[in-house]
């Protein structure tokens, strides 16, 4: 890896640490005022946030930007936990745990969004973040905290139920949701009633819920390895995903419309007035890419170890063939490694969506995936409603809309968080389809890549936001001689909130925006094969370091089967492992050394210090192993066979 990328990664980690800040919001004190001061007006108790009287927040939290945004934002925080887990997994776990605790989470199951309106609805990404943090700690530090996984999973069951009860107005598994953190991406303000009447059925909201279902399924299957009781709840989330997928894409008659547009090969939001009366809003935006998030591969070895789940899976395939074979990816067909694919999109639809997503005249920027297709620069979409004109057009830089204050823009710029999830989705598709399924990347270039290399290419383009080119400049600095060449500034990064869709110029919060710290994880995964921005692409990285949870199916270089990696639980004596229905593969002494300490043990604990030393040794071995795998892939001219690796993404 280049020294420049190492420096970028180090500063991204440092920025994550800098964004830790004490945050206090105690509703009772806010509503009643300070005891020694005149009381606030009584109206304060009946304005925004009046329904969050249980809030008692008094913690160190990871802020979106402790300089410009010194307050938590719940979905930002979930993304923060990914790079944080690489360097401080205890803090990352505590962040996720806090947001699901009873003094944060509403009694009805809603998570608090942010202080200006705790009731705003943000994308449901906490189940994903929970499992990713669990896996990162397991891979990098050699321990798995099953207590953390089980504890948060049980709280997220409440949040999932809140989504189903509150955001599916007609009970047909097509969700509304509201603005969902994407501010001005739509034609209308999605947090307010539509000026047209009716209900906005959202492709992104429904895609997010499919994604949520699969993340909960993934956690349930992990827990079911240790307690069979979780097989039942895994079956529930499997079937719920199927119903969401079917509702989003299936049409029961020629006059009925879904959110999928056959002519354009893309998902759109739609206005529903009940029954078959639906009008699609043909805006090609991130809204139509989010359904790609709803994908998961099921490993045959795991399914065979869970007889109750397997029985229900087989029953569903046998007795509901209509749903198993419709517009979603067929769950009857087995892919590479005999895997099963659960996905909102079929292979045909995947090809159609990727054709647009990888088109440099639409979504595919030199610096990542744009939030709105550049097609709308010349072809804005407009609608007249009662004499008022609503328009969506491509704007690469700062917003030209006053929606949500106009201080962010989802009509063209690049956002790392949503790009990160797209990359992971492509990796999961690769696990199923393998190297034989290739798409043109970029569209029209004549260069065909399998989806593993496509995901790598996107990560490289995102790294090019910060990496110095052969002209000495960084795209993020927008041509500033001071930032690019001054010896006091040239090696110091600004991790902006979002980036210009054409030039890569940094926009929004301009010092250290937390979720942009995700670049540290991308550098970890593919930085070693990243070329300079001006260098022609030569794929070199194998799939071995795309994932943080890889199990070898093959043999070592000496022809012997690989040894099972020693794994230590980070848990208490009452852990799920102690109640496991299955034999343990873990060393008993290692467990006992952790049983006496809480998950968030103090740094001064001698046992804790010994654990950290052991973790550092494990991390060194892991990095050495990854470098050796990359070297081997390079010797093969970048074409890994992919057979050796099994990943649970």
TrEMBL record:
It comes from Eutypa lata (strain UCR-EL1). Pathway: Glycan metabolism; N-glycan degradation. Residues 605-649 have a biased composition (Basic and acidic residues). It is an enzyme of class 3 (hydrolase). Belongs to the glycosyl hydrolase 63 family. One of its GO terms (molecular function) is Glc3Man9GlcNAc2 oligosaccharide glucosidase activity. Residues 562-571 have a biased composition (Basic residues). This is Mannosyl-oligosaccharide glucosidase.
């Amino acid at each position: 890896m280049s020294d420049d990328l190492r420096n970028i990664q180090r500063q991204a980690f440092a920025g994550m640490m800098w964004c830790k800040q004490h945050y206090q919001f105690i509703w009772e004190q806010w509503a009643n005022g300070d005891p020694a001061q005149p009381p606030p007006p009584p109206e304060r108790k009946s304005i925004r946030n009046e329904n969050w009287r249980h809030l008692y927040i008094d913690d160190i939290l990871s802020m979106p930007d402790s300089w410009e945004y010194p307050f938590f934002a719940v979905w930002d925080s979930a993304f923060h936990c990914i790079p944080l887990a690489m360097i401080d997994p205890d803090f990352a776990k505590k962040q996720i745990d806090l947001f699901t605790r009873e003094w944060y989470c509403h009694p009805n199951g809603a998570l608090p969004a942010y202080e200006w309106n705790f009731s705003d609805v943000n994308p449901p990404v906490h189940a994903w973040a929970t499992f990713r943090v669990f896996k990162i700690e397991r891979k990098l530090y050699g321990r798995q905290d099953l207590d953390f996984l089980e504890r948060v999973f049980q709280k997220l069951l409440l949040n999932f139920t809140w989504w189903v009860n509150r955001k599916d107005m007609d009970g047909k598994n097509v969700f509304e949701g509201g603005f969902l953190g994407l501010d001005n991406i739509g034609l209308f303000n999605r947090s307010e009633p539509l000026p047209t009447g009716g209900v906005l059925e959202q492709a992104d909201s429904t895609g997010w819920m499919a994604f949520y279902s699969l993340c909960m399924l993934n956690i349930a299957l992990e827990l079911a390895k240790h307690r069979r009781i979780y097989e039942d709840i895994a079956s529930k989330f499997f079937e719920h995903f199927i119903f969401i997928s079917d509702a989003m894409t299936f049409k029961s008659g020629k006059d009925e419309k879904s959110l999928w547009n056959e002519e354009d090969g893309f998902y759109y939001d739609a206005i529903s007035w009940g029954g078959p009366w639906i009008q699609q809003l043909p805006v090609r935006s991130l809204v139509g890419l989010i359904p790609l998030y709803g994908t998961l591969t099921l490993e045959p070895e795991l399914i065979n170890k869970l007889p109750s789940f397997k029985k229900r899976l087989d029953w569903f395939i046998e007795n509901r063939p209509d749903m198993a074979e419709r517009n979603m990816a067929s769950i009857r067909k087995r892919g590479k490694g005999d895997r099963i694919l659960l996905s909102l999109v079929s292979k045909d639809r995947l090809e159609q969506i990727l054709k647009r997503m990888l088109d440099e005249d639409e979504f595919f920027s030199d610096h990542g995936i744009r939030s709105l297709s550049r097609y709308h620069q010349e072809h804005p979409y407009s609608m007249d409603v009662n004499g008022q004109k609503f328009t969506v057009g491509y704007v690469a830089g700062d917003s030209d809309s006053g929606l949500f204050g106009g201080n962010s823009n989802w009509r063209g710029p690049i956002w790392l968080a949503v790009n990160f999830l797209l990359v992971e989705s492509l990796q999961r598709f690769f696990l199923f389809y393998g190297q034989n399924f290739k798409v043109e990347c970029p569209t029209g270039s004549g260069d065909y890549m399998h989806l593993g290399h496509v995901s790598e290419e996107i990560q490289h383009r995102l790294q090019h936001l910060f990496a110095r080119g052969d002209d000495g400049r960084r795209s993020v600095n927008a041509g500033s001689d001071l930032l690019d060449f001054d010896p006091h500034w040239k090696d110091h990064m600004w991790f902006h909130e979002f980036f210009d869709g054409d030039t890569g110029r940094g926009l929004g919060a301009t010092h250290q925006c937390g979720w942009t710290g995700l670049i540290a994880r991308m550098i970890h995964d593919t930085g070693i094969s990243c070329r300079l921005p001006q260098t022609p692409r030569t794929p070199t990285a194998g799939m071995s370091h795309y994932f943080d949870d890889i199990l070898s199916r093959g043999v070592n270089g000496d022809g012997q089967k690989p040894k099972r990696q020693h794994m230590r639980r980070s848990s208490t004596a009452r852990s799920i492992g102690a109640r496991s229905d299955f034999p343990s593969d873990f060393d008993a002494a290692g467990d006992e050394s952790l049983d006496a300490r809480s998950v968030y043990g103090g740094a001064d604990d001698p046992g804790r210090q010994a654990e950290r030393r052991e973790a550092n040794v494990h991390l060194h071995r892991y990095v050495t192993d990854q470098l050796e795998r990359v070297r081997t892939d390079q010797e093969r001219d970048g074409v890994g066979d992919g057979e050796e690796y099994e990943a649970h993404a």
